[in-house]
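Friendly challenge for the regulars: who can give me the structure tokens for this chain first? No prize, just bragging rights.
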Amino acid sequence: GRFEEGTVRLHFIDTVEPSVLAHEILNGAPFTYLDEDTEIGERRSRAVPLRRGLPVEPHELGRLDPDAIERVRSEAIPDVRDPDELHDVLLSLVATRPRDDWGEHFEALARAGRCFEVRAPALADVLWAATERRRELEALFPGARFLPDHPLPPSLARALEEADADGAAVTLVQGHLEISGPVTVDDLADATGLAGSSMLIALEALRGRGFAVSGRFETDRGEQWCARRLLARIHAYTRERRRAAVRPITQEEWQAFLESWWHAAPGTQRHGRAGLAEVIEQLQGFELPAGEWERIFAERVESYRPEWLDDLCLSGEVAWGRLSVLEPVRVDDGAADKPLGEAKTPSRRTPITFMLRRDLPWLLQAHRGDTAPAEPTAGSGREVLDALRRHGALFHSDLQATTNRLPTEVEEGLWDGVARGLLTADGWGAVRSLLNARTRFARRQQTRPRPGSRGRRGTWRQAVEGRWTLLPTAHAIDEVEELAETIAWQLLLRCGVVFRDVYLKERLAVPWREVLWALRRLEARGLIRGGHFVTGMTGEQFAEETTVPLLRPRRAGSAFAPPARAPVGARQRQPAGDSAAHFYRPVEGDRSEPGVDHDLDRQRLADSRRRELEKVVGQPPAAQAVSRRPVVSHDLSAEDELGVDRS
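First reply, four minutes later:
Bragging rights claimed.
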């Protein structure tokens, strides 16, 4: 209707291949055309081919395989077996240089009046041409002589119009590009007899039609021209050869590779503050329970110290927060009058991620898209958000004074914002304070501070937490392709090899098809390699060039060799997070349920067990187990704090 009314303007252009908007029509089921009685094979739409074009612009293609180029050249050269086939070739080429293996067939055609030799002052050598191309040749080479001089048949002379030189040159060059593969301008001029200026005009016209592309396809050959369909075939052969060179590894070897790739295997840990930043850059965007992060850092960084994480956060180099949306904003009618869930209590199972602050904008776009997290409508969480919006970043004590609420109520409001993906803080010490069960339990028993106590009695923070602030909102996605390529690079950095199963472990708003197309573009540019790297995984797989040698099966005892099996019956104590399977184990729900205080329950359980153990041994067992405490002493469960050996 809008097309008939003229409110939508139509522009008709010629394209190299059918637009993606037409694919659904061209691939329509038989019942798509309800007003048509013809069979599916007789439809005109079935005659339109859907070619697989180049995934990127020709100038962005990576280095092509020389063997693939020679293979396409050999396939493109016509195999002439009789005079009729030579006549068809001459019609498509307009004119060509003589060839010894075609001499017998050419003489037969010349005797029948179907072809002749072309001689002209501008030509250094003779050309062969079909009689039907006489008018194009007269326009291209004025004053040319034809031997034998066969005129056009009267019926054909009346049907053919006068040819112009530019159109004839385009037809001549197009025919030669169809059978040449990548070729230089000088080689084309030698094969066709055209002058350099006429050749360049014809090539630019073919480039405008999308038929020909130029680039540096072979080393030491300079700029070359090639038919687009032949270049696409060369690229396909190059990709197939590179993928065939990959030897896949087993699932067990894949797990061993991941242990080393994540610096969790012995001898692969990072060192110092810079090593911790490297680990964070590799894991950024992947959400894990808040209570497990520092244990994971301790596994991947040698002699990990919590102060390193505090320094990175407080210096502004690293940020933390929840990127995924727990509860999106409702857009249905009347939703603004409905409460958006209850407040969330501090829980070690709340998904949190660390990231480099410079990458925060695109990470928010990748995980949220056009979705925004819902905000609390009432309670301490609402008041904390309003205070941060009015005054900007605030310290914990400033929030208490601004909201006029108890410390525990402010913490509940802060954690509600953290669990919803609304709030973050300058330092990680803020989360340590919120997750510490003993301090939180003591604060619940404390009344309002007296004026002389400065409001700090019993509420000393465990570490410098800095100021609390709002997590930035995700900007609208302008370039989906650019964002998908950034996500692809991050997945390659995190896992080494990327395929669909790896993507499914992420909480991304960008669909897999966009990431897959981005990976294909990177492969076409020669930046990564596609192939079958891991057995048992379906779909296309991609890896960086530097990663492929590391994926080759190693001998026993090497860095990436599968771990040896433990003797049957041997007791082993393996950390819960040092395996690839655990790392990619999905978070079993966000245990920040409203009204449930898991840390308080664990604290009560720990107190009960302590009293039982004191009755048995007569002294608190915590003093006997100081030497067994992990490095990260601020993130211990109740049993670890009691010194209970869970092995």
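The chain has 27 helices and 15 strands. The first strand starts at residue 115 and ends at 119. Your move, everyone else.
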